[in-house]
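Handout, section B. The chain below has 171 residues.
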Amino acid sequence: MHRDPAGDVARSPVGSNAYSPDPAQAAGDIVATRVVHARLAIWIQIRFRELVDHGNGNFHLIGIKTPWRSRTIELDALPGHWEGTTTMTDAHGRAVDCAVTHRISYDRNRVMLRVPRMCLGTPRWVRVGIRSTVAGAPFAYADAARAHLGLDTAEESAPAAEEPVEEPAEG
């Protein structure tokens, strides 16, 4: 499990890319991540200080790098569809047909994803980066964890983990 500091959320006026720290913002604040590289799938868990099912939506971007491939998973939860939908793309932004499954637990402040290893070329190791954004009315709030490991598009103003982590395959 990788711990991410609480209170490291950054905010930006909607429509802007200028982020500034907002340590009081609890919604969307990542506090821990866990990546399990198992024989058949990569399991990703994101724990939040608070995960809400109101506002203008929650957007989770998960970058996965392997020795051979880069993939991005977008998990978007919107008003009326708080259960969320996922899309996987390759390094060029093209959709990848992959049976990614997910579960969002607002009661437990968690997001869980399962990514079949076959979608990643059955790699020996993976690197995972995560950025979550909560869209409010006047502001969007973003936090990143492990972002420098697998997410090339991570916002610089949303602090990332400092330690490199490679998750080798289990068994």
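Note. Residues 131 and 144 are 4 Å apart (CA to CA). Compare this with the example in section A.
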